[in-house]
Amino acid sequence: MQSRYFTINDYPQGTPARELFELHEQALPALAEDEVRIRNTWLSVDPYMRGRMSGVKTYIAPFELNAPLEGAAIGEVIESRAAAFPVGTKVRHMGGWRDIAQLTGDQLEPLPAFDVPEQAYLGVLGMPGMTAWTGLKRIAEMQEGDNVLVSGAAGAVGSLAVQLAKAKGGTVVGIAGSPDKLEWLESHGVKAVSYRDRDATELTEALQAACPEGFDVYYENVGGTCLEAALNTLRVGARIAVCGMIARYNEATPSPGPSNLAMILIRRARMEGFIVFDHWAHYPEFLGEVGPQVESGQLDYTETVEEGLERTPDAFLELFEGANRGKMLVRL
Amino acid sequence: MQSRYFTINDYPQGTPARELFELHEQALPALAEDEVRIRNTWLSVDPYMRGRMSGVKTYIAPFELNAPLEGAAIGEVIESRAAAFPVGTKVRHMGGWRDIAQLTGDQLEPLPAFDVPEQAYLGVLGMPGMTAWTGLKRIAEMQEGDNVLVSGAAGAVGSLAVQLAKAKGGTVVGIAGSPDKLEWLESHGVKAVSYRDRDATELTEALQAACPEGFDVYYENVGGTCLEAALNTLRVGARIAVCGMIARYNEATPSPGPSNLAMILIRRARMEGFIVFDHWAHYPEFLGEVGPQVESGQLDYTETVEEGLERTPDAFLELFEGANRGKMLVRL
């Protein structure tokens, strides 16, 4: 059987070009003991993948050049030599960026049994959802009634963070760019603030207008101007959960950091970076808490879907243009 | 009785000029009920006082223009209408920057009973010592064997932080400037690294050479290049206690922050600002732990002493020139 997959042929500087990604095809070898073959139905593209294209080991090894890229995916077992995963089993795994994956049993997770569309396990009940929950609950230690600020608030992680925060009360403010994102936020009871055409001073003023008392929690997805403005609006004892700094991921040369970092001292604030994979042991706790909210429709989630394996690189690149609302997915 | 005291006549931009400080004299009113008169013997000057000269409320109110400045001081009660503080009592209080202070009983602390020179309660057993201990123990949660980096390592706080860290094992590295400071550090088993004539990249390399495994704890007194280099040398799960950023205190316009703040994310590090006054309830715990070490001579502390009330502004300004080793004091 043939598998089609994407590779990269170089570690790019700056914004990756579409040409970086090459589609290849190979014949898969016969299944070894404990291996399964999976027809992927949904592929995930995520901002963290940019880090794996840098050629430098950060918290995760870089992608290997000219080898199949990796990423979360959902698929169905179509051939199996692993007793735990008979043909027909729906699974989640990291063999994305391809149509047919061949993996061993220890690389697979069976999908949980909530009555939700299967791709939810790549988004609201997958890594982005778990990331939103972990940042608020375990890193920022959000308390009932805290005022919460979220940047990238209409993205895959941010759109869940604002809703989880909102459910616990307090003023929740989301920073986003396009009018439809701002509208989505407002329709969910979140005060929406645009970063567009605003420098750090202007963004600070807009945040202060939205929440004059300041923020107890800042959920950071973006960095840059958002971080600088957020630092100006912290309350004493505020906690910043640093989930990502997407504004910086494609920079060829580093930009200066915020000039007001001393606010960490003045407000006795705590800023902590986290990687959701470190917290994966708490996935069942997350699932038990958030799964029923998704099943009941209480938690709204949005998907932006590209169609067909060929569009995977485009879907990925659109993440950095702010083109997606909610989780960016590829349907095969 | 006359009291001589310093005032400032303006909130300065940038490095304060010596002319900012004016010496005045006034006749003190007769003592009211519960008031005492204190002849100060030692005055403290500290970097945080620069913040009180900014005219902006940060974590503490600004100094009032043309009113006596405030700061920690040690003195002896020479006249008393407060039963708890009879004549001859040695006290610590915030009526510094003057020779004779007139205060109420609730503004005084009797000196603890350790067999140490009285000015130790302004330094190693006072605010700077408590700051070093709080940052390491309560903020950075230093563990036995942690590798610890301290900037401003020969200053009032840093020189105690390196020794407290050293006593718990692990590699301890101190950043300082002048040769005698570096020598002092080395003589205490601390690896000394100079920041002089080094940019962030060069300082990073020097720190990596001193401690190739990287740091679990960074005790931040300085900011600027030191912070940028330190961020490059953190281990996963590192904790940064932000005690001060003296490199920035005299800046008229803010400088950009570190361009590598994303290391917080990559290393899943935590950065937390603190103000020692918030932790003052733990002062007895600190005193019980560190007092005996000072009494026995186990903990070495250094003082830089200026003589006479008139020199108080000079002593203060020298803090920003890196002129002091250990605690800067004025003896009256």
Automatic annotation (TrEMBL), chains A, B:
Keywords: Oxidoreductase
Annotated InterPro entries: ADH-like_C, ADH_N_2, ER, GroES-like_sf, MDR_fam, NAD(P)-bd_dom_sf
Pfam families, sorted: ADH_N_2 (PF16884), ADH_zinc_N (PF00107)
Occurrences of domain Enoyl reductase (ER) (ranges): 14-330
Any GO molecular function: oxidoreductase activity, acting on the CH-CH group of donors, NAD or NADP as acceptor
Matching CDD domains: PGDH
Name used for this protein in its record: Enoyl reductase (ER) domain-containing protein
Organism: Halomonas fontilapidosi
